[in-house]
Amino acid sequence: MLQRRVAVSVSEPYWGRGMGWRPIASVVSRNHVIIDGVTSRVILGPERGSNNEKGGPWMDIREINRKTIEQFRAGGEIPGMHRERLVLLTTSGAKSGRPHTTPMMFVDDGDRILVIASNMGAPKVPDWYTNLVVDPTVQVEVGDESYLAVATALTGDEYERVWASIKEGYPFFADHEKQAGRVIPVVAVQRA
Fold first, then answer.
1. Within-domain flag for 150
2. Residue 156: helix, strand or coil by DSSP?
3. Distance from C-alpha of 150 to C-alpha of 155, rounded to nearest angstrom
4. 97-109 tens-digit pLDDT
5. Are 171 and 101 in the same domain?
6. What CATH number has the domain bearing residue 117?
């Protein structure tokens, strides 16, 4: 089974600089990392197609997402994250049609929320973005609410204005843009 992995630096928070979130992961040995108090095995070294050329430790992002989703749905605190800025976005798989839920930060924008397809600075857009391009109907879980919504990528002047504002408020997204070397999509998600 193919697993998505992400590079982790001991010197900076996993969830990004500038968000005010404390680190949730720390490397405790060459082969293990602690995530929310649970020790997990890591795989060392760059792998084919990885964006970590320095050979640092890797964490299984699926496991982190699974725990975050579970804690969010339980209604309690999510260690290392601001619950009020977290959304669970469920898309239909572009090829499989199966539901896929991804936790992510959102920006409140009046009667809609905005999600950013930065993929933590990876050169490729995240899978959830590819999924919603094929089928823009999504399920949103935010706070204690759950509702169907329609996702639309911003374009033109609206994109430029909103993207500049997001980078001003959350400077780590400018770092993601530079690292990715691509346009970072901003998606408006509005109740259906």
1. yes
2. helix
3. 16
4. 999 999 999 999 9
5. yes
6. 2.30.110.10
CA distance 75 to 180: 34
Which structural domain range is residue 18 located in? 5-70
Burial label, 8 (beta-carbon count in 10 A; 0-12, 13-18, 19+): buried
**Secondary structure element (H or E) that encloses residue 63, with its range:** helix 61-74
> How far apart are alpha carbons 151 and 28 in whole angstroms?
40
Q: Is residue 163 part of a domain?
A: yes
Indicate the helix (H) or strand (E) that contains 188.
Answer: strand 186-191
Do 88 and 62 lie in a common domain?
no
Rounded distance, CA 118 to CA 79, Å? Answer: 22
pTM of the entire structure?
0.71
Greatest alpha-carbon span in the chain: 48
Q: What are phi and psi of 100, to 5 degrees?
A: -130, 125
Total domains in the chain come to 2
Cβ 9 vs Cβ 56: under 8 Å: yes
